[in-house]
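Subject: Sanity check before I submit

Could someone independently write out the structure tokens for this chain? I want to compare against mine line by line before I put it in a report. The sequence has 406 residues.
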Amino acid sequence: MENSSKQWRFEGNKRLNSASAISVRGVLDLVIGNLSTDDLRPTIPLGNGDPSQFACFRTSTTAEEAIVDAVHSAKYNGYAPTVGVLSARRAIANYLNRDLPYKLSADDIYVTSGCLQAIEVALAAINRPGANILLPRPGFTFYESRAAYEHLQVRHFDLLPARGWEVDVDAIEALADDNTVAIVIINPGNPCGSVYSYDHLKMVAETARKLGILVIADEVYGHLTFGSAPFVPMGIFGSIVPVLSLGSISKRWVVPGWRLGWLVTSDPNGILQKSGIVESITGFLNISTDPATFIQGAIPQILENTKDDFFSKVIVTLKEAADKCFDGIREVPCLTCPKKPEGSMFVMLHILQVKLNVSLLEDISDDLDFCMKLAKEESVIIVPAEQLKELRLKVMDFDDHDSVLV
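---
Independent answer below. Compare away.
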């Protein structure tokens, strides 16, 4: 019989619980828990960027054939190198070089398990005692969750809806101090559907250079644009400021479950090498997991042989969906959306930038209540933005002396 008086020395890691609470997945679990088990209608999952759940989105036959060829070759059944299979790294460099004024090499590429792991690597590599990072508001909450776990202090700068969700550059300079190490730019925007111009990104790069900080450019939705502005990679400005560019095949090829991403040191001046960031990136990957080797083996064929008509079809479908969603929101009195999305998959897949006027609704207390009842009554899953905001504010301290979110 177990001794009930025994004092066990272990307990759960509260930092994980707190970090999870401010994640999209954590809040989505709350909403999904309200689905009615008696409702026979299919669930409409609009809570995260996974278009593969919809029949109108399917990856290219080129990508599917590349996976089959990689498996049949029997060349990719073993462990991959820490930084990724060399052929995959070369192919990713060549793919990104199409848009850059200088040439990346395989040595600039680190293959990751999706873009989420690229975020983990980037935040771990730049962290040091007392450091802080500048994050956009609204933004992708995984950055907050991971920063909280890393004890990396967060400072938020606002995106300006009246200016197409551009960065409030003046606010960046006011927020930064001697402990600021980086700024995160998400382009095309998650969750706002914004697409930044060359001039605006150059302004951000010059501001970061002035402050002596690097730029983490989250470009997982790169080239998924359907408005008047084209996609401009932040790496173009690598000669102005060091850039850690993050991406993956998840969104453009509609395969988020394949978990193949990359972190790129867009830094022709070699500053990231001299500062030890490159060594830290490799150090993290040495104690982390890898994406499946056979998917890395398929990457050259996927990146080099996918035809433009596949991408065009995805863009047309995204634009149609975004237009319908935006027009539908305008017909609902309690909802307002400041700007039609021009890129990524957002507003289409959740309504983080849509404002909810609960005074026009009966028996709805806030946006979380709205989302839970929408799930229960209509089997539609969306993300409650204000709830995420409130959770961020609550998760302020993991230790007595460590302020995490400000």
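---
OP: Matches mine. For the report I'm noting this point. The radius of gyration is 22 Å.
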